């Protein structure tokens, strides 16, 4: 397991600062986001159930992490979170959900990460910040970069049904999403 796949034991947990309280019930804007699998994706137009997990940035094994990355609450854990969604992808698909990851990294960077991590779903790029601005998603600054804070949205027909924020620990987020879908009988309710 690489250093990017392991979470430090003393990882700083984020606190709920209310930055996502406005999201439940919002319709996503019509916005085409570049995808690692080819054509751009407009999340607002997708029918049915969609899980969108937003994360700060996927690290690369041969590159240093951003300054003080391990002490920024909620920053560390993008690779473990993506790997968890990969490992639970079949269960999420069986529940009727399509999965997308979202970061402000460009598509070329994301394509390398998706291939290296063997992700069976697309990563979407919000490098221009259009979706983050439209939804007023929480962000933070490090090393001159504006990055998304970790948040996971469950959408139905382009409308936000459930918000997971803050997400901690990130490697448990996919399991949390599956548990919420089961507890709320969400897939059966929309069939």
Count of discrete alpha- or pi-helical segments spanning 4 or more residues:
6
Overall spatial form: globular
- Count of separate structural domains: 1
Low-pLDDT stretches: none
What is the helix content? 25-40%
| Cα-atom radius of gyration | 15 Å
Terminal residue distance: 39 Å
Under CATH, the topology can be stated as Glutaredoxin
N-to-C order of helices and strands: EEEHHEHEHEEEEHH
Strand content: 15-25%
Average pLDDT works out at 92
Please tally the β strands and state the result: 9
Which CATH architecture? 3-Layer(aba) Sandwich
What is the C-level CATH assignment?
Answer: Alpha Beta
Biggest β-sheet: strands ordered side by side in the sheet: 5-4-3-8-9
Instruction: Report the biggest beta sheet as strand number plus sense, adding barrel if it closes.
Output: 5 strands, mixed
CATH superfamily, called what? Glutaredoxin
The chain-level structural class is alpha/beta
Structure, explained:
There is one protein chain. By secondary structure, the protein is an alpha/beta fold. The protein has one domain (32-190): Glutaredoxin (3-Layer(aba) Sandwich), CATH 3.40.30.10. Helix content is 25%, strand content 24%. The protein contains six helices and nine strands. It has helices at residues 78-87, 89-94, 107-116, 130-135, 173-183, 186-190; strands at residues 32-35, 38-42, 49-54, 97-103, 123-125, 139-142, 145-148, 151-156, 159-164. The strands form three sheets. The chain has a five-stranded mixed sheet. It has a two-stranded antiparallel ribbon with strand order 1-2. The chain has a two-stranded antiparallel ribbon with strand order 6-7. Strand 8 (151-156) and strand 9 form a beta hairpin. The termini are far apart. The mean pLDDT is 92.
């Amino acid at each position: 397991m690489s250093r990017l796949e392991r979470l430090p034991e003393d990882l700083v947990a984020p606190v709920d600062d209310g930055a996502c309280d406005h999201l439940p019930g919002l319709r996503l804007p019509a916005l085409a986001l570049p995808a690692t699998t080819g054509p751009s994706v407009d999340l607002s137009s997708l029918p049915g159930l969609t899980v969108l997990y937003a994360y700060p940035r996927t690290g690369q094994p041969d590159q240093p992490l951003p300054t003080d990355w391990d002490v920024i609450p909620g920053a560390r854990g993008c690779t473990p979170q993506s790997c968890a969604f990969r490992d639970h992808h079949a269960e999420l698909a069986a529940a009727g959900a399509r999965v997308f990851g979202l970061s402000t990294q460009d598509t070329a960077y994301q394509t390398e990460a998706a291939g290296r991590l063997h992700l069976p779903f697309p990563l979407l790029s919000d490098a221009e910040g259009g979706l983050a601005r439209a939804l007023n998603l929480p962000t933070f600054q490090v090393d001159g970069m504006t990055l998304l804070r970790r948040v996971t949205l469950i959408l139905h027909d382009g409308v936000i049904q459930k918000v997971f924020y803050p997400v901690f620990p990130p490697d448990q987020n996919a399991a949390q999403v599956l548990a919420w879908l089961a507890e709320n009988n969400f897939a059966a309710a929309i069939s």
